[in-house]
Design brief:
The chain has 199 residues and is mainly alpha-helical. It has helices spanning 9-15, 18-30, 35-42, 46-58, 88-93, 96-119, 139-167, and strands spanning 62-70, 73-80. Helix 2 (18-30) crosses helix 4. The longest helix has 29 residues, at 139-167.
Length: 199
Amino acid sequence: MSAAPSLDESLIKALAHPLRWRIVEAVVERGEASPVQLARLLDEPLATVSHHTRVLRDHGCIELTRTEPRRGAVEHYYRAVMPAFFDDEQWRQMPVMLRRGIAGQIFRRIVEEAAAAGALGAFDAPGAHVDRMVLELDDAGWEELSALLTDVLKRAQAIQERSDVRRSDGAPARTSEVAFLHFEMADADAAPRRSPPLP
């Protein structure tokens, strides 16, 4: 799912509640999910998750994909129709407090999941990355790097789509998490020297 060109006010309002952003993240990651599955995954009451799922549906963040009868009830499954990530223009459109809230949730999740995976040896595998690079960029360099990272995310989505096709034939899967942190350091005077050039 690629980044959409703009965010309207109703979408911004829909994402303002922290649980709604967690629901969208979970639906994006799973490809499809029901409120029952989301309630278990997020450890939240089903009634609360169902309410927020309806809000997200009504604001066009998710859409109904199918229904299944379950013990005298009907379970509804949804997929995300909003971007899996925000590009620079979409991020700029959001109120600062919403940006900070979403960034904080994502950052906490990255740290928790990377620490748990690392303890089990997830970074031992060839091809795993734990990288850090400090750069000193002018405005044009900042924008160029941001555009590069957005392109990498789009290409990662395309890799996922090709992998989904192969996995439909029963190919095994490895769950991978890609996380970028591109931010202006809080205290430039205390920052370490920038990374040396590659050989």
